Amino acid sequence: MEMSWFEEARYGLFIHFGLYSRMGRGEWAMNKEEISPVELERIAADFSPDAFDAEAIADLAVAGGMKYLVFTTMHHEGFRMYHSELSDFCSTKRGPRRDFTEEILAAARERGLKVGLYHSLNNWYDQPDAVAALEDKAAYEEFIENTFARIRELATRYNPVDIFWYDGWWPFDAAGWQAERMNAMIREIQPHILFNGRNGLPGDFATPEQHLKAPQPWRPWEACVTLNDNWGFHAGDHNWKSPVEVIRMLVQAAQGRGNLLLNIGPRGDGSIPEMSLEILRTVGSWLETNGVCLRGTDLWTLDPCKRGGHAGDWCHHGLFTRKKNTLYLILTSPPEDTLTLTGLNARILEVRRLGGGAVDFTQDREGKLRVPMVGFQSTGTLPPVLEFTCDRPPEIYKTGGLRIPKVSHPRYDPLPSDLPW
Predict the structure, then answer these.
(1) pLDDT tens across 114-144, in order?
(2) What domains can you pick out in the chain, each with its CATH number?
(3) What is the DSSP annotation of 328-348?
């Protein structure tokens, strides 16, 4: 088991593509609309995603600055996006007659990307289903053995991969899913593989969904986040995150030494929505110049109630990251004239703008730092980044007072905060 690549990756591409993409109403349409398995089979017969291009998707991940991707081999509706000897309800025997999982793996490997296989434990198509397994012991035994057989086939056919990404763990806990046995079975086939924690066990890394709060105590983690409001393609969902929002999420991941797994949902014909392409390429271009501020970072955390063990602070002009003796400030809101920073414990040796050159600065005896913002207001919509070389690992300590109290004190909040620090 090798964790170092994962801890250093910082950015990955999640691909939600399946039979639900053909319906164009999100990945939960079968459940929410109570679509029957018989009706789902008719949809599968009409599923022709001729525009799906695994090489173009892998190229998009590379251009976007991503280091790995995770592909939905089977979501909750139960349609296998791979060749299966155990079921006819798969993409090589219905509609497309293609093995999308193999196509993605081949394209990713050719480009040096790490690969994860998403797989839903529960599905609404196979019988007995999870509801029957809850209600009847014999059905449960058959359901679990079917689940194990499916996972064994997947891990054996697509070997090696780097992550087995569980999901759809309703309705059982680790004991109900026999998760220890499940992980041991996969590790016997692929000893190097990493697990997330969605079969009831903690897994090798945490997977906060739709938020970027690092686990406490810290352990490797990955925030999975949609680019709009749905994982699978939804024709009516146009609530796209901006490139700056994605950059902010990447910085938050870097502050907590975690990864951002950002999702795209191809249309039913396999094509990628144009906004997804534009956003990912724009962020990728920004990363070419500024990605150093995200890679190999130290923890930059803040406890609003107390000081101990936290080096970080918030900034009204943007977001900080730290790497050894270097502090970075991602200027999402550059000041008009002069950037002023206080509370630093370090002396500044040099200030540079990433992608540019040295920047003038002054720092007085008390540590107050001033940087003229000449030329920073005409940089377009993406945030410039300042790199501060310091004489020691930088820390910033400020409180809710205008000066630091000389007695014991809370930092910003005297009681548990209402803010998501």
Answers:
(1) 999 999 999 999 999 999 999 999 999 999 9
(2) 4-293 (3.20.20.80), 298-415 (2.60.40.1180)
(3) EEE-SS--SSEEEE--B-S-E
